[in-house]
Amino acid sequence: MIGEGDFSQYAVLTVLVETAQGPALLFEKRSAGLKRQPGEICFPGGQLEADEKPIEGAVRETMEELLINREQIEILGPGDVFLSPFNIIIHPFIAWIRDYNYSYSREEVSAVFTVPVRFFQENKPQKYFNHLVYELSKDFPYESIPGGKNYPWTKGNYAVNFYKYEKEVIWGITASIAESVVELISRYNLLKGQ
């Protein structure tokens, strides 16, 4: 991908667990003490370390955040890569976690909760479209392009998804990944035999 080196690379594990309501996605609420996005809802995961493959990063971060071991994780496959207009690439992976006792690292996570896969299959997210516009640097060489300061820059849209489940609001990138993963689960019948 052209310009990929300008992007920060992240990986997440979209975790499936068995519940009384059937298969469910597991979400984390980020610790209030974190510098970035405290209190937000997310999937286990984080930024890739140098020379780390996305699947390795997703598994490593999940083990650290949920206090589980590698043997509990059954990878089903990759999700659709999320490319953000904010120079972030997120590599989601779909996995079952077996024998999970709802443990988590209190340094990074303040709570975990589940949402039945069925909820996402039956409810589409609310979508809000934000407009993205160029903000050019002060020293931009307008004199070097046709039209100069009147150049007709392309504008873009960025969808921000929201799901409301009980008292929780799952939004933004996490909601977009959840929507995509559940579509893949349905399309490829990934819950069959589970």
From TrEMBL:
Protein name: NUDIX hydrolase
Keyword field: Hydrolase, Magnesium, Manganese, Metal-binding
Any one GO molecular-function label of the UniProt entry: coenzyme A diphosphatase activity
InterPro entries, sorted: CoAse, NUDIX_hydrolase-like_dom_sf, NUDIX_hydrolase_dom
CC cofactor: Mn(2+); Mg(2+)
Source species: Acetobacterium bakii
Residue stretches making up the Nudix hydrolase domain: 7-139
Superkingdom classification of source: Bacteria
